[in-house]
Amino acid sequence: MRVGEVDPEASPRKLRAKRANERLKLAAGALNTLALTIVGAAFVIPGVTSLENVRWAWIPVGLILHLLAHLVLGFMKSED
Q1: What is the largest CA-CA distance in the chain?
Q2: Average pLDDT for residues 19-36, to the nearest whole number?
Q3: Residue 40 domain flag
């Protein structure tokens, strides 16, 4: 195959990879938003009144969800 030629199989494959990557980014963004919401609800909101009210058990849950979002991004496919 020459430099200027287009592989007919490459275009559908690239489109599938792009579609899959966008779905993975959406899932990772949703997990990250959920993680931030949990940390906000567990730490920031009760922490305004008193640090004694903080729900410390929810902080690791938010951290785990954030790390899970990073893991989801690891499944992205090459678009080349």
Answers
A1: 69
A2: 95
A3: yes
